[in-house]
Design a protein that fits this description.
By secondary structure, the protein is of the alpha+beta class. The chain has a domain at about 90-249: Nuclear Transport Factor 2, Chain: A (Roll), CATH 3.10.450. It has helices at about 5-45, 70-110, 115-130, 140-150, 155-170; strands at about 135, 175-195, 200-215, 225-235, 240-249. A 5-stranded antiparallel beta sheet has the order 1-2-3-4-5. The chain is elongated. About 15% of the residues are buried.
């Protein structure tokens, strides 16, 4: 009959069609699974492990970061600062010494007061310092004789020996030294001074003198000016104040 297909043939055709459809779909599904697994493996290999966060607290101490080495400019600056500190220390020490001297002068002046014999010692020290430290090559012996009037005891002897050794040099160089006392003050109104020989002066007075010296000789052009501070120890002998010691500060 036209259009009739037996059941066996119809079943066989259906099985054949299913088999062909299955064989066509199987490679596609297999390929798709392989691509998916390959993509997953690639992602797994390319993924980087997560970093652990840096500690921000807790009891664990951090290692200190290394300090940068100072440059040459910084080293020079440190040296300059060190030199500046040394200069400032010297200035501070000088200021302290000047303050102590000023305090001593103030106490001495307050102790004795105007009109006392401390004032007489100060006046005598002014005249003595100018005479002891001035000389002229044109009349050197007279200069020495004038200074000797204000020296006493062992100091008078040592001062005379020093001037004898100075005479030849002063004459050969045509030296002339003029000492001028700018100011004096009582530094210690009552002290005891003992000479090397053992002679003791119980009522000595120490006078602080500020002196300028002008020097002229054949070896220098013009003149040379020097400033100095002296402490003169004065003692009263037969109503006169004489010098028994001189110390330069």
């Amino acid at each position: 009959m036209s259009g009739y297909v037996p059941r066996k043939l119809r079943d066989r055709g259906e099985r054949t069609e299913r088999t062909e459809r299955t064989e066509r779909e199987r490679p596609a599904k297999s390929g798709g699974g392989t691509k998916a697994r390959a993509a997953t493996a690639t992602k797994t290999r390319s993924a980087k492990p997560a970093r652990r966060p840096a500690p921000t607290g807790g009891d664990r101490d951090r290692r200190p970061s290394p300090r940068p080495r100072p440059s040459a400019g910084k080293i020079r600056n440190r040296r300059s600062l060190g030199e500046l500190r040394r200069v400032l220390v010297k200035v501070a020490v000088s200021a302290v010494v000047a303050t102590l001297l000023a305090v001593g002068v103030y106490i001495g002046n307050s102790w004795w007061g105007p009109g006392d014999h401390g004032e007489g010692a100060a006046k005598a020290a002014r005249t003595a310092a100018a005479a002891l430290f001035s000389y002229d090559h044109r009349d050197f012996d007279a200069s020495v004789e004038n200074g000797a009037k204000y020296a006493y005891g062992e100091f008078a002897k040592s001062w005379t020996r020093a001037t004898e050794g100075l005479k030849e040099t002063a004459v050969s160089q045509e030296a002339q030294v003029v000492a001028k006392v700018v100011d004096v003050a009582v530094l210690n109104p009552r002290t005891t001074y003992t000479e090397k020989s053992g002679t003791t002066y119980d009522h000595a007075v120490e006078i602080l003198a500020f002196m300028d010296q002008t020097t002229k000789n054949a070896k220098i052009e013009g003149q040379k000016n020097d400033q100095s501070r002296l402490v003169l120890t004065m003692v009263e002998v037969d109503g006169r104040w004489l010098t028994v010691n001189v110390v330069a500060l």
